[in-house]
Design brief:
Blueprint lengths: L3 H6 L28 H33 L19 H4 L8 H7 L3 H20 L3 H19 L21 H15 L8 H5 L2 H5 L5
Helix pairs in contact: 2-5, 2-7, 5-6, 6-7
């Protein structure tokens, strides 16, 4: 028979609490719950870096829209802005002198539909990137815009159709390609970011039903 002393020494069973299940993020991944761990710090640092790239690239597009609209004196001279009656596409497209679409692009120069599409694209991509919303649509439209501008400049050519040297320094990888790759990368990794309005945007009913709007 067990004594009272033995009963006092017998270990009591321990109750083990199950760890809380972490809530999934907007893109479906499960976050690390070890607060203060290097993994969490790395994720937060990466989020900040990606958000910085997103906002900076968005400002590139938005500034191009503002300069071409109001003639702020940078790429567009004062008094030559869209609001002053100038054409955002005529100056660039009318001087396309190289590449397989040179004639077609010159024909588009100054056309109202081309001006509106170009300017709405600059504004839409810029605002979407800065706010962190609609990044997939921004990547699609921005990449299409960069592809057309790449074709207009045609970096593979060392000389223009007139025989003059082109300004190309690389047969493929120019800034249009870098912008397009950045847009695609942001659409892949920055959707639903809390460093912006992406998380709120992702919770809208229409966006939940149509994930391509993320």
């Amino acid at each position: 028979m067990a004594t009272s002393h033995q009963h006092r020494l017998s270990p009591r069973p321990h109750l083990h609490r199950s760890a809380p299940t972490p809530r999934a993020t907007v893109d479906g991944s499960a976050p690390d719950t070890a607060t203060g761990s290097p993994a969490v710090a790395a994720v937060r640092t990466t989020d900040i870096a990606v958000a910085g790239l997103r906002v900076l690239l968005g400002f590139v597009f938005l500034w191009a829209f503002l300069d071409k609209t109001f003639g702020l004196g940078y790429a567009t001279a004062s008094g030559k802005g869209w609001v002053d009656g100038g054409s955002p596409t005529k100056g660039f497209l009318s001087h396309v002198d190289v590449g397989p679409m040179a004639g077609t692009l010159r024909g588009w120069a100054g056309e109202p539909w081309a001006d509106w599409l170009f300017m709405l694209g600059l504004l839409g991509v810029g605002v979407a990137l800065i706010l962190g919303i609609g990044l997939r649509l921004a990547a699609l439209s921005g990449t299409a815009m960069m592809a057309l501008m790449w074709i207009a400049e045609w970096p593979p050519a060392k000389h223009l159709d007139s025989g003059k040297p082109s300004s190309s320094t690389n047969p493929f990888a120019d800034y249009h390609v870098m912008y397009a790759i950045s847009l695609i990368a942001l659409a892949a990794v920055a959707v639903g970011s809390r460093l912006g309005l992406g998380a709120l945007w992702a919770r809208l009913p229409i966006v939940r039903d149509h994930r391509w709007l993320l």
